[in-house]
Write a structure and sequence with these properties.
By secondary structure, the chain is mainly alpha-helical. The longest helix has 24 residues.
Protein backbone atom coordinates (compact mmCIF):
# COMPACT_ATOMS: atom_id res chain seq x y z
CA UNK A 1 0.00 0.00 0.00
CA UNK A 2 1.33 3.40 -0.96
CA UNK A 3 1.12 6.25 1.53
CA UNK A 4 -1.00 8.17 -0.98
CA UNK A 5 -3.61 5.38 -0.82
CA UNK A 6 -3.85 5.26 2.99
CA UNK A 7 -7.19 7.09 2.93
CA UNK A 8 -8.67 5.50 -0.19
CA UNK A 9 -10.86 2.40 -0.06
CA UNK A 10 -12.74 0.13 -2.42
CA UNK A 11 -16.49 -0.37 -2.18
CA UNK A 12 -16.11 -4.12 -1.73
CA UNK A 13 -13.68 -3.86 1.19
CA UNK A 14 -15.86 -1.31 3.00
CA UNK A 15 -18.98 -3.42 2.52
CA UNK A 16 -17.15 -6.50 3.83
CA UNK A 17 -15.97 -4.43 6.79
CA UNK A 18 -19.53 -3.29 7.52
CA UNK A 19 -20.88 -6.84 7.45
CA UNK A 20 -18.16 -8.11 9.79
CA UNK A 21 -18.34 -5.15 12.16
CA UNK A 22 -22.13 -5.43 12.35
CA UNK A 23 -21.73 -9.12 13.12
CA UNK A 24 -19.25 -8.27 15.89
CA UNK A 25 -21.85 -6.01 17.54
CA UNK A 26 -24.50 -8.73 17.43
CA UNK A 27 -22.08 -11.38 18.73
CA UNK A 28 -21.01 -9.03 21.55
CA UNK A 29 -24.62 -8.92 22.78
CA UNK A 30 -24.98 -12.70 22.47
CA UNK A 31 -21.76 -13.15 24.45
CA UNK A 32 -23.02 -10.82 27.18
CA UNK A 33 -26.30 -12.76 27.32
CA UNK A 34 -24.58 -16.16 27.51
CA UNK A 35 -21.96 -15.09 30.08
CA UNK A 36 -24.41 -13.82 32.68
CA UNK A 37 -24.88 -10.17 31.78
CA UNK A 38 -28.53 -10.28 32.81
CA UNK A 39 -27.66 -11.84 36.15
CA UNK A 40 -25.18 -9.07 36.87
CA UNK A 41 -27.75 -6.36 36.24
CA UNK A 42 -30.50 -8.08 38.21
CA UNK A 43 -28.15 -8.44 41.19
CA UNK A 44 -28.01 -12.25 41.14
CA UNK A 45 -24.30 -12.11 40.26
CA UNK A 46 -21.51 -9.85 41.42
CA UNK A 47 -22.12 -6.32 40.05
CA UNK A 48 -18.81 -6.23 38.18
CA UNK A 49 -17.67 -2.88 36.77
CA UNK A 50 -14.53 -0.77 36.76
CA UNK A 51 -16.09 2.69 37.01
CA UNK A 52 -17.74 2.59 40.42
CA UNK A 53 -19.27 6.07 40.24
CA UNK A 54 -21.55 4.99 37.38
CA UNK A 55 -24.56 3.04 38.64
CA UNK A 56 -25.23 -0.37 37.14
CA UNK A 57 -28.05 -0.25 34.58
CA UNK A 58 -31.42 -1.63 35.61
CA UNK A 59 -32.41 -4.77 33.66
CA UNK A 60 -35.03 -2.87 31.64
CA UNK A 61 -32.40 -0.43 30.33
CA UNK A 62 -30.02 -3.30 29.62
CA UNK A 63 -32.69 -4.96 27.47
CA UNK A 64 -33.14 -1.73 25.49
CA UNK A 65 -29.37 -1.33 24.99
CA UNK A 66 -29.05 -4.95 23.88
CA UNK A 67 -31.93 -4.55 21.42
CA UNK A 68 -30.56 -1.31 19.96
CA UNK A 69 -27.06 -2.78 19.68
CA UNK A 70 -28.38 -5.79 17.78
CA UNK A 71 -30.46 -3.47 15.56
CA UNK A 72 -27.45 -1.29 14.77
CA UNK A 73 -25.33 -4.37 14.05
CA UNK A 74 -27.95 -5.75 11.64
CA UNK A 75 -28.21 -2.32 9.98
CA UNK A 76 -24.43 -2.29 9.52
CA UNK A 77 -24.47 -5.75 7.98
CA UNK A 78 -27.27 -4.80 5.58
CA UNK A 79 -25.78 -1.43 4.72
CA UNK A 80 -28.99 0.22 5.93
CA UNK A 81 -29.91 3.24 8.07
CA UNK A 82 -27.05 5.41 6.88
CA UNK A 83 -25.84 7.56 8.62
CA UNK A 84 -27.86 6.59 11.73
CA UNK A 85 -26.36 3.12 12.31
CA UNK A 86 -22.74 4.15 12.98
CA UNK A 87 -23.78 7.09 15.14
CA UNK A 88 -26.17 4.94 17.16
CA UNK A 89 -23.46 2.29 17.56
CA UNK A 90 -20.98 4.91 18.79
CA UNK A 91 -23.41 6.15 21.44
CA UNK A 92 -24.24 2.60 22.55
CA UNK A 93 -20.61 1.49 22.74
CA UNK A 94 -19.73 4.61 24.73
CA UNK A 95 -22.47 3.68 27.18
CA UNK A 96 -21.13 0.12 27.40
CA UNK A 97 -17.62 1.40 28.16
CA UNK A 98 -18.78 3.81 30.86
CA UNK A 99 -21.04 1.27 32.52
CA UNK A 100 -18.75 -1.76 32.34
CA UNK A 101 -15.30 -1.02 30.95
CA UNK A 102 -13.37 -3.54 28.89
CA UNK A 103 -10.59 -3.16 26.35
CA UNK A 104 -12.76 -4.82 23.73
CA UNK A 105 -15.66 -2.50 24.51
CA UNK A 106 -13.31 0.46 24.12
CA UNK A 107 -12.17 -0.89 20.74
CA UNK A 108 -15.77 -1.27 19.54
CA UNK A 109 -16.46 2.29 20.65
CA UNK A 110 -13.40 3.71 18.87
CA UNK A 111 -14.25 1.99 15.59
CA UNK A 112 -17.89 3.09 15.78
CA UNK A 113 -16.78 6.62 16.70
CA UNK A 114 -14.44 6.84 13.70
CA UNK A 115 -17.28 5.72 11.43
CA UNK A 116 -19.70 8.18 13.01
CA UNK A 117 -17.39 11.08 12.14
CA UNK A 118 -18.24 10.61 8.44
CA UNK A 119 -20.44 7.56 7.84
CA UNK A 120 -19.23 5.84 4.64
CA UNK A 121 -21.49 5.62 1.60
CA UNK A 122 -19.90 2.96 -0.63
CA UNK A 123 -22.65 3.40 -3.25
CA UNK A 124 -21.64 7.01 -3.95
CA UNK A 125 -20.29 7.44 -7.48
CA UNK A 126 -17.05 9.07 -6.29
CA UNK A 127 -16.49 6.85 -3.26
CA UNK A 128 -13.30 5.18 -4.47
CA UNK A 129 -11.77 8.42 -5.72
CA UNK A 130 -12.51 10.39 -2.54
CA UNK A 131 -10.40 10.36 0.60
CA UNK A 132 -11.87 8.86 3.79
CA UNK A 133 -9.60 9.87 6.70
CA UNK A 134 -11.97 8.40 9.27
CA UNK A 135 -11.63 4.95 7.67
CA UNK A 136 -7.88 5.57 7.65
CA UNK A 137 -8.16 5.89 11.43
CA UNK A 138 -9.75 2.44 11.54
CA UNK A 139 -6.80 1.01 9.63
CA UNK A 140 -4.38 2.76 12.00
CA UNK A 141 -6.29 1.46 15.02
CA UNK A 142 -5.72 -2.12 13.91
CA UNK A 143 -1.98 -1.54 13.66
CA UNK A 144 -1.97 0.12 17.09
CA UNK A 145 -3.84 -2.80 18.68
CA UNK A 146 -1.38 -5.39 17.40
CA UNK A 147 1.81 -3.46 18.11
CA UNK A 148 0.84 -2.41 21.62
CA UNK A 149 -0.58 -5.85 22.41
CA UNK A 150 2.76 -7.39 21.46
CA UNK A 151 4.76 -4.83 23.43
CA UNK A 152 2.53 -5.33 26.46
CA UNK A 153 3.01 -9.10 26.29
CA UNK A 154 6.78 -8.69 26.02
CA UNK A 155 6.94 -6.28 28.97
CA UNK A 156 4.87 -8.59 31.19
CA UNK A 157 6.84 -11.76 30.56
CA UNK A 158 4.37 -13.46 28.22
CA UNK A 159 7.26 -14.89 26.19
CA UNK A 160 8.16 -17.20 29.09
CA UNK A 161 5.01 -19.18 28.33
CA UNK A 162 3.72 -19.37 31.88
CA UNK A 163 0.62 -17.24 31.18
CA UNK A 164 -0.46 -19.47 28.29
CA UNK A 165 0.38 -22.62 30.23
CA UNK A 166 -1.79 -21.51 33.16
CA UNK A 167 -4.60 -20.40 30.85
CA UNK A 168 -5.03 -23.59 28.85
CA UNK A 169 -3.23 -26.13 31.02
CA UNK A 170 -0.46 -26.94 28.55
CA UNK A 171 3.06 -28.02 29.41
CA UNK A 172 5.55 -25.16 29.49
CA UNK A 173 7.60 -26.80 26.72
CA UNK A 174 4.64 -26.30 24.36
CA UNK A 175 3.31 -23.04 25.76
CA UNK A 176 6.61 -21.15 25.49
CA UNK A 177 7.13 -21.48 21.69
CA UNK A 178 3.43 -20.78 21.07
CA UNK A 179 3.66 -17.65 23.21
CA UNK A 180 6.62 -16.46 21.16
CA UNK A 181 4.72 -17.27 17.96
CA UNK A 182 1.74 -15.16 19.09
CA UNK A 183 3.92 -12.14 19.78
CA UNK A 184 5.78 -12.54 16.48
CA UNK A 185 2.46 -12.79 14.65
CA UNK A 186 1.17 -9.61 16.28
CA UNK A 187 4.33 -7.78 15.22
CA UNK A 188 4.33 -9.23 11.69
CA UNK A 189 0.66 -8.75 10.81
CA UNK A 190 0.77 -4.93 10.57
CA UNK A 191 3.63 -5.25 8.07
CA UNK A 192 1.86 -7.95 6.09
CA UNK A 193 -1.39 -5.98 5.94
CA UNK A 194 0.43 -3.00 4.46
CA UNK A 195 2.75 -4.90 2.11
CA UNK A 196 0.63 -7.92 1.18
CA UNK A 197 -2.98 -7.38 2.28
CA UNK A 198 -4.36 -10.75 1.19
CA UNK A 199 -1.71 -12.64 3.15
CA UNK A 200 -2.20 -10.27 6.08
CA UNK A 201 -5.96 -10.84 6.21
CA UNK A 202 -5.46 -14.62 6.10
CA UNK A 203 -3.00 -14.25 8.97
CA UNK A 204 -5.49 -12.20 11.00
CA UNK A 205 -8.20 -14.82 10.44
CA UNK A 206 -5.93 -17.70 11.45
CA UNK A 207 -4.60 -15.90 14.54
CA UNK A 208 -8.05 -15.07 15.86
CA UNK A 209 -9.46 -18.48 15.05
CA UNK A 210 -6.70 -19.80 17.27
CA UNK A 211 -7.67 -17.36 20.02
CA UNK A 212 -11.33 -18.39 19.76
CA UNK A 213 -10.46 -22.09 20.02
CA UNK A 214 -8.65 -21.37 23.28
CA UNK A 215 -11.10 -18.73 24.56
CA UNK A 216 -14.56 -18.97 22.93
CA UNK A 217 -15.64 -15.65 24.45
CA UNK A 218 -13.38 -13.82 21.98
CA UNK A 219 -15.63 -14.25 18.93
CA UNK A 220 -16.65 -10.59 18.86
CA UNK A 221 -13.06 -9.43 19.23
CA UNK A 222 -11.96 -11.71 16.42
CA UNK A 223 -14.72 -10.43 14.14
CA UNK A 224 -13.89 -6.77 14.68
CA UNK A 225 -10.19 -7.41 14.06
CA UNK A 226 -10.95 -9.26 10.83
CA UNK A 227 -13.37 -6.46 9.90
CA UNK A 228 -10.65 -3.86 10.29
CA UNK A 229 -8.15 -6.00 8.39
CA UNK A 230 -10.30 -6.26 5.24
CA UNK A 231 -10.10 -2.48 4.88
CA UNK A 232 -6.51 -3.03 3.74
CA UNK A 233 -7.70 -4.99 0.70
CA UNK A 234 -7.56 -3.18 -2.60
CA UNK A 235 -9.06 -3.51 -6.07
CA UNK A 236 -9.29 -7.16 -7.09
CA UNK A 237 -8.72 -8.56 -3.61
CA UNK A 238 -12.46 -9.05 -3.01
CA UNK A 239 -15.18 -10.00 -5.50
CA UNK A 240 -17.22 -7.03 -6.67
CA UNK A 241 -20.66 -6.83 -8.20
CA UNK A 242 -20.34 -5.14 -11.55
CA UNK A 243 -22.82 -2.48 -12.50
CA UNK A 244 -23.35 1.26 -12.51
CA UNK A 245 -22.65 3.06 -9.25
CA UNK A 246 -25.71 4.38 -7.51
CA UNK A 247 -26.04 7.84 -6.13
CA UNK A 248 -25.94 8.16 -2.35
Amino acid sequence: MRLADAERFTRSSVRAFEVLFGSALVVEVLTDVLTGGWGIHTGRLYPWRYIGVVPLWPPSLLAIVWALTVASGIAFALGALRPLAPRLAAVLMFAWVIERYSNHGALLFLVAFYLALAPPRPAASDFEEARHPNLGLVRAQLLIVYVFSALNKISHGFLRGESLANLVGWRLELARPLSIAVVLAELALPVLLVRSPRVGVVGVVLLHLGFVVLMPGLWSFGLVMVAMSVLFLGEGDLPTRRGPARSP
